[in-house]
Amino acid sequence: MKPHLIKKFLKDKKIDFYLVTNNDLHLNESPNLNLKDIYQLFKFDCTRGYILFFIDKCVFFTDSRYTLAAKKFFKNNFEIHNLSETTIVDYLTMQKKKLTGILDSKLISIKEFREMNSKLEKNNINIHLQSKNLFKKNYYPNFNISYPLSMPKYLIPRPFNNNIKKIKNNLKTEGILIWNNSHVAYLLNLRSFELWNSTKPFAGLFISKKNIKPVLITNNSNLKKIIKISKSFNILEEGKFIKFLKSVKFKNIETSYEFLNLNMYMRLSKFLNLSETKINISKYLGIKTSKEIRNIETCHIEDGLAVVKFIIDLKNKKINPKNEYEISEYLYNMRKEGINFFRNSFDYISAFDSNAAIIHYKPLPKKSLSSKNRNILLIDSGAQYLEGTTDVTRVVKIGTKNLYRIKHSYTYLLKSLIKVENKKFPRNIKSSEIDLFIRDYLSKFKIFYSHGTGHGVGNFGDVHEKYPNISSISNDILTNNNLFSIEPGHYVEGHFGLRIENLYVTKIINNSLKLKNITLVPYDLSLIDFDLITNFEKKFIKKYHQKIYKILYPRLSNFYKNYFMKNLIDKI
Hints:
This protein is an alpha+beta fold. Helix content is 34%, strand content 21%. It folds into three domains: 3-130, Creatinase/prolidase N-terminal domain (Creatine Amidinohydrolase, Chain A, domain 1); 143-279, 3-Layer(aba) Sandwich (Creatine Amidinohydrolase, Chain A, domain 1), CATH 3.40.350.10; 286-569, Creatine Amidinohydrolase. α5 links the parallel β5 (99-104) and β6. α12 packs across α13, α14 (404-422) packs antiparallel against α15 (431-443) and α16 (535-552) runs antiparallel to α17 (558-569). It is globular. The relative contact order is 0.09.
């Protein structure tokens, strides 16, 4: 359905607004484009986005990562709001009148709807739930492109039977409905490829306290081809799963209100009670085993090799990409040569100069900046390897101008990472304190950024894991073997954008918590103002580059070795 037809529907039915989310049935962070309603309606892509349709206007809500891109994209009759400044509830209540709206109940979580609705009802604003979308919509990805696999035994962090037993032992009810795809993938050591840039199956999981087979809830018949799944699980489509629950006569089960969509909750609530689970599966995933850490470090060798060769080729003009998109494609092709590479972990952010100030800028084949007369490139990229998931951001100087302002900011971003890597934090520190530590330091030099400082990273899984979240509002507690990014930035609209991102593993040593950098990609020395660097910091950078060189040396040709030694070690 076209946007104008939605507005006509509202007018004909005398409904004030229609709230559109960008979610899929499993509330994944980044669904395929054909599952994103906002993209299907307007061709604008974002991770977190909402649109309020009114008869006479559209109002778009997103977080700070996408507000600048949205302002450039949307034109007439569109209002753009940053969710950290104006929420959907804020906007609707500011209208100061009784309103009635509609929402697709399949595309919002129980938790989000309840929080929103409780505030709206107090202001005479009612949302009616639609079980079907107003426009033609496919709720499922294309399972024909799905290639499910069971993780090799030498790579699995915990046997799936042990995971299920652990869940069972912690149940407070008769069973648990797990709707988060990442949780299902991890618990069952199962990976699948129907979601772009992802490795998780589009499936839910039900584990009963009774001695009956767990149920894999999916419309993907390809999952039946995996022997352990066909032997150890019942495999049921959603409708048949609901009939199964009725037949077994369960009365009380638990689920996560954050991850289950409202429609499924309402369907099940007709015949049983669903309580909020106390089992924190996100945290279980977020504390990596020693085997996981070893594997993740292995995949960073492959990833570092690709990115190092890419940067050196770019610096030496061995490649001549025409635009930002071709640059991202070149790096992707370099990564494809890596051992056990499967796919990208997200769409690369490849941005020249002022485009880098658009935090989640996405270059398109027919719409990206030309490579001519550019000064800097910000490249944020990552990959899925059988051993783990990577995510790294580097800024590369590609022009000849003396970039004093950029070098000043870049140097302090780098100094903030050096500080955090050398800091001994108290064990059981809140992740928000890491965020504050970096922000406090950078604020002294008038460097600020509107996004979070970091995010958890999966094991051949989600590049953005829920735990731990490194942000000012996070209550996550850090412990041994957490894996997450730290990625401070500085963005000046219309001029430049900078971000440096490494992945870190926490290590508890002598009752203190230290951060170990596992990313193996050097910094661009031509962007560092060495007048601002102490001798200790200079030695630290050199030692880091020497470490990378030592690890990658056996797999670098003489050309790359010579460049690395001459320009990335000897010049320090």
